[in-house]
Design a protein that fits this description.
The complex is a heterodimer of chains A (156) and B (84).
Chain A: E1 3-6, H1 12-21, E2 28-35, E3 39-40, E4 43-44, E5 47-52, H2 56-71, E6 74-82, E7 84-86, E8 91-99, H3 102-119, E9 122-128, E10 131-134, H4 139-155
Parallel strand pairs in A: 1-6
Antiparallel strand pairs in A: 2-8, 3-4, 5-7, 5-9, 6-8, 9-10
Helix pairs in contact in A: 2-3, 3-4
Chain B: E1 2-7, H1 9-15, E2 19-23, H2 30-38, H3 42-47, E3 55-58, E4 61-63, E5 74-78
Parallel strand pairs in B: 1-5
Antiparallel strand pairs in B: 1-2, 3-4, 3-5
Classes of the chains: A alpha+beta (156), B alpha+beta (84).
């Protein structure tokens, strides 16, 4: 499966090596890793808890991966997203896209992250010295995802 | 009609419930189900009030206020997502 939601950490090097090993036609690998920061909105973040919607989250991610495959000529896509308790410097999410050439792989990787941030049901709760709080969604994330809508409209 | 309702994240905490199996008067859309839940008053009225950023999924697909709700559906209410 190209999509995994798990509590345990991931090894990007091992994941990429596994994808490359089975396909000698790969000429480009683009990857993104999202990491837990130690501060947000001016407060120190000691810990973060990630909640998801079992069933829908996996479906939503698969749909995003499918859409990336429709838009760009890529070979393999892998999305690994962690849930549960995370601390600063912990890895949160991994996206790997392989293809023959870099442009398609870069674009698909960015698209998947932009859509994941706005369409996949995950929610972060942060623990700060002032107490715990749910992270609010950002308009910048909606705008980032919206760019891809415009591009497809322009192309139509 | 029977529907399965789920609440996630901040909404789950505000309502003090992860979800419920409801047997309710027939509703036709997401908007009418939301209105029916708000009519309970208290935390429901506040958490689901118009103007609050609430997202809804029907049978695990993102829905709009006009999306149909049918008997046996799973309807989830949650805040805008913040993963990644």
């Amino acid at each position: 499966m190209p999509v995994r939601v798990q509590t345990q950490d991931f090894d990007a090097g091992a994941e990429i090596a596994a994808l490359r090993a089975r396909n000698p036609k790969i000429g480009a690998v683009a990857s993104f890793i999202g990491v837990c920061r130690d501060a947000n909105d001016g407060d120190e973040v000691k810990k973060m808890t990630l909640e998801h919607y079992p069933g829908m989250t996996e479906k939503a991610l698969e749909k995003i991966v499918g859409e990336a495959g429709d838009r760009w000529d890529v070979m393999d896509v892998l999305v690994v997203h962690r849930i549960g308790e995370l601390r600063p410097s912990d890895q949160i999410v991994l996206v790997v896209v392989t293809g023959a050439h870099r442009r398609e792989a870069f674009a698909a990787c960015e698209f998947i992250m932009d859509y994941l941030k706005t369409r996949a049901p995950f929610w972060k709760k942060e623990e700060t010295p002032r107490g715990s709080r749910w992270v609010e969604s950002r308009e910048a994330d909606d705008e980032a995802a919206g760019r891809w809508e415009k591009r497809s409209a322009d192309a139509a | 009609m029977k529907v399965k309702i789920l609440y996630f994240a901040g909404l789950r905490e505000q309502l003090g419930s992860p979800g419920e199996d409801l047997d309710i008067a027939p509703v036709t859309t997401v908007a009418s189900l939301r209105t029916l839940l708000m009519a309970r008053g208290g935390a429901w009225q506040v958490a689901l009030a118009q103007g609050r950023a609430v997202r809804v999924a029907v049978n695990q697909e993102m829905a709009q206020p006009t999306t149909a709700v049918k008997p046996g559906d799973e309807v989830a209410f949650f805040p805008p997502v913040t993963g990644g």
